[in-house]
Amino acid sequence: MKGPLSRLYLIELRRIWTVAAAFVPLGLMLLSTLMFFTSGKFSKTYDVARFAASINISLVVPLASSLFGVAMVAADVKDGWLRTLLIRPVSRQNYLLIRMAAVYTSVVFTIVVAGILPNVIVTNFFVKGDVVFDLGRVLAVHGVFLLQALLIVSILALLSCWVPGVFNVVLLAFWAICASAISGYIQAFHATDKWLAIMKDFLFPDGFSKSVDAINAGMSTPIAELAWGFGALGAILALAFWSITKIQVDKGSE
Amino acid sequence: MEARPAAVQAENISKTFSPRSKNAVFALKGVGFKIDQGEIVGLIGPNGAGKSTLLRILLGFLNADGGGKVSILGDHPESLVTRKQIGYQADSHFRSNTVSTRAFLELHALLAGNPAPTEEVDGILKHFNLTNAAGRKLSALSKGMRQKIELAVAFVGSPKVVFLDEPTASMDPPSVFELREYLTQQKAKGTTVFFSSHNLTEVENVCDRVLFILEGSLIAEHSLAGTPQGFLEESFRKHLVERKGL
User: Fold this and answer.
1) ipTM
2) N or C, where is chain B less crowded by C-beta within 10 Å?
3) Which residue of A has its CA nearest to B156?
4) CB B101 within 8 A of CB B130
């Protein structure tokens, strides 16, 4: 099935890359270039890894993943694409794997265009102050935020199996906001409570974003944070691949 | 000699939409039937009778209520072995403004197991008079053209059992004649076809047997061998009068 599945992957990419989709990397590139440029122009020290992390983790990765992963599975159920595929000897898991691979490829392309190239250009041509370039840290940070993108795509795939249309993105945003609010509340009012402090760390799968912070803070290998990130990624992928076997491909009635 | 499994076998299929709501819809009630290999069987009934729901359950796209059983060529409808041997034309048509007709058909041929699909796709495009639409995006086609493409997709990969949902609904008369001719050829090749339709003449012209469905129940079945023209209309009217007093 190697040939047919690679063709399916190319078709999935073609389906994603409509004219409107081309504005996602372009728009994000304009926004991130402005942010990198401002940081490069006005900072005394331009730490490449730190700016790459802050702009990608807070802007490019979540927005690119959300825009390409919106209604990832739900839209395919609604417009009949999933039905037209599954009449063929394609397993539901293969479909999800290829769908996620196509979305993730698009997200990685957007990260390169909007999150990496502007940083390279600003670092080389527009920084006024000193440039801090630690290759090991730069590579580690980029590797981890690519994992963060995979995590978000996986969460969106999982949610899209169960909720219609754009609600996978809405739910994810709601989850992140609630987790952040509860975490802030615990930090402010129950900081000494050991159990609440542990619970706070598990409200949202933020192991990879915490790893990036830890790497930039000078920690060589943030094992606990990475373990939490990989654990969450594994669990979410397992749930997504289980969910795709449970959904009804056709929800309509005559 | 080992007996050939039935092309399609359904036992006690029921489906209720929104079962816990007070507006629950009982779409299918204990439907059961068997289609032998090589038969062309029509499923007819008025709008909302449960035809599309039945087809979707047979194909595993929709879950039936507990207790029912479906097999296609003796296997589960969702098994990959079964999927290699079936084709389906849906009543709603997939659109895309980035995928062309040819790419769509070639993908289906590849997935159906043809490693070099160009020749097969050329033949199907020619047969369904879609050669001019080959390079056009699916969203740029008329409803009738998209229906023909869905029909073409159903026959890609020379499936043993084909399910058609209202195949002539948006077609012009010449296309209906072509489809009739194509189904006759498929029958000669031993392909089993199960199709739902409102078009009694069409069903009468191509089918060996017909199943009547009304309000989610199969109310009758008739063999069409040797029946006079107009038999189906008369019979359908009679069943409707009996059941609904129309």
Assistant:
1) 0.86
2) N
3) A88
4) yes
